[in-house]
Amino acid sequence: YSFPTIIKKEVRFPIKVGLTTTGDAQARVTQQCKTTCCFEFPIILATWEVQRVAAVEDAIHSTLEARGYKRESPGTEWFDSTPDEVESIIKFIQPTAQRLPRLQHK
């Protein structure tokens, strides 16, 4: 996810890359953004259904960090990336991964 005022088109921007094991990405993001650090409602940019969720998340994080895109920030799992780049990493790691329909903020 990211925030509306920092989302860019076709260039890298801060993206939180994380996982949920419950299948409810919106609930997970809402849980993370209930603190005072969030200045606006987050937008879930994309979600994928994958096998071995934690291993895939680790691979995405490691790849983005190896490319030099990990952000130095108080929060963890933030990278300068794009949804397309994240998807390309997922598809390389797990070609059968399915991108799920985009969720709308409630």
Explain how this protein is built.
The protein has 106 residues and is an alpha+beta fold. The chain contains 3 helices and 4 strands; from the N terminus they run βαβαβαβ. Strands 1-3 form a two-stranded antiparallel sheet. Strands 2-4 form a two-stranded antiparallel ribbon. The longest helix has 14 residues, at 53-66.
Keywords:
alpha+beta; 3 helices; 31% helix
Write the layout of secondary structure elements.
Blueprint: E1 13-16, H1 25-32, E2 47-49, H2 53-66, E3 78-81, H3 83-93, E4 98-100
Number of helices: 3
**Rough outline:** globular
- From the alpha-carbon coordinates, what is the Rg to the nearest angstrom? 13 Å
Series of secondary-structure elements, N-terminal to C-terminal: EHEHEHE
Spans of at least 5 consecutive residues whose pLDDT stays below 50 are: none
Number of strands: 4
What structural class do helix, strand and pairing data support? alpha+beta
Describe the strand arrangement of the main beta sheet, using strand numbers: 1-3
The overall pLDDT, averaged over residues, is 90
Largest sheet descriptor: 2 strands, antiparallel
- Between the first and last Cα atoms, what is the distance in angstroms? 15 Å
Q: Specify the helix fraction band.
A: 25-40%
Q: Strand portion, in percent?
A: 5-15%
